[in-house]
From TrEMBL:
It is found in: Cell membrane. The keyword Transport applies. Its main location: membrane. Pfam families: AzlC (PF03591). This is 4-azaleucine resistance probable transporter AzlC. It is a multi-pass membrane protein. The keyword Plastid does not apply. GO terms for biological process: L-valine transmembrane transport. Keywords: Cell membrane, Membrane, Transmembrane, Transmembrane helix, Transport. It comes from Halopenitus persicus. One of its GO terms (cellular component) is plasma membrane. Belongs to the AzlC family. The chain crosses the membrane at residues 12-31, 64-88, 130-153, 159-176, 183-199. It comes from the Archaea.
Length: 225
């Protein structure tokens, strides 16, 4: 096993503690919304994006138009485009099919941990470190989604599994708020999402995401001037 793969797997261990309840909540929510077990597990394998999955599942449970479901999922996942653009230079020397393979495993956690290690010049092989971080996340996500599907009805609400979801993202968000544009983007998007929490079809979340991106870009432009 490559040394950088082992290093990535070691670094991601604390993060997996938050992925476990997150994935279980997704599995439980999918069944509650009327998806079959195969659909719930297949969604995690094909979409593989927890926050957009939860939003889509909630909308499906509310019988929202499919266009709204797809649009919401796309808006929430737009951050992956920015992640990809940011991390792509580290994989520029690899073949296209290798980059496509790695792209499937891109998540918030894998991006944050990998970029931190790359910027610190702490790894020799960006690919192996990324896989060391991302592969355990993917494996735990699939297994725990299935557990949520199977055990969902037997898990009491008192366990508070859903509380782990914001904690996972806060653990990722806080360390990367290193400059004014990122901080402004986080504050604006969070504030708008909270203000529009009762918006129909959960549109407050994509609205907050778009507003946060715009605010961050505007702040970046002002700073550069």
């Amino acid at each position: 096993m490559h040394a950088d793969f082992r290093a990535g797997a070691r670094d991601v261990l604390p993060v997996l503690l938050g992925v476990v309840p997150f994935a279980m909540v997704v599995g439980i929510a999918a069944i509650d919304a009327g998806l079959t077990p195969l659909q719930a597990i297949g969604m995690s394998a094909l979409v593989y994006a927890g926050s957009s999955q939860l939003a889509a599942i909630e909308l499906l449970g509310e019988s929202a138009p499919i266009a709204v479901v797809v649009f919401t999922a796309i808006i929430i996942n737009l951050r992956m485009v920015m992640y990809s653009a940011s991390i792509a230079p580290h994989f520029a020397d690899y073949r296209r099919r290798t980059r496509a393979f790695l792209a499937y495993f891109l998540t918030d956690q894998a991006y944050a941990l990998s970029l931190t290690a790359y910027e610190a010049d702490a790894v020799e092989s960006e690919r192996w470190y990324f896989l060391g971080v991302a592969a355990p996340i993917s494996a735990v996500w699939m297994v725990c989604t299935a557990l949520g599907v199977v055990l969902g009805a037997g898990i009491p609400d008192s366990w508070g599994l859903s509380f782990a979801i914001p904690l996972v993202f806060l653990a990722i968000l806080v360390p990367v708020m290193k400059d004014r544009p990122r901080t402004v983007a986080a504050l604006v998007s969070g504030a708008i999402a909270v203000l529009l929490v009762n918006a129909p079809f959960n549109l407050g979340l994509p609205t907050g995401a778009v507003a946060g991106i715009a605010a961050g870009l505007f702040t970046e432009v002002i700073r550069n001037r």
